[in-house]
Amino acid sequence: MYLLLMPMILVIDTKNEQYFIQLKGIARADVIKDDKEIFIVKLKLFFLKFYIHPLKAKKEKKSETSKAVKVDKKTKKLSFRTVIRIIKSFKVKQFYMNIDTGDCIANSKLYPVFSFLNYQFGGFHVNYKGQNTLVLAVENRPIRIIKSFFNI
Length: 152
Hints:
The chain is an alpha+beta fold. The chain is built from 4 helices and 8 strands. Helix 3 (104-120) links the parallel strand 6 and strand 7 (124-126). It is extended. The relative contact order is 0.20.
């Protein structure tokens, strides 16, 4: 029952350089900036920690003979309405965007658009200082994703 109701959280915070996805109480995957590689994924599963290097060159295994097996699986494609219902099942917990395009004319054109969006939703800002910031925290639960496949 807990697996259906547990919150899944995705956080993208360029201000504090935090990027992670979390299954509350079970697992958390952080993307960490690295000097040697571009990034490292730190996976925490219950009380265990793993570091994954996705961009590291993999060693090729020597295989004596490889057998090619063709498997024809028909995959069911999601309809556009189902994808929209899945997207609508997500809840935005926190949103803040501060943008500078580097062009003062483009910033001036964005200003009324962002002003209208602030009236409707909030969290949109334009600056002329060269700062670009995005803070996004999104939450969903597996039960809501499952419900989105059905017309409930």
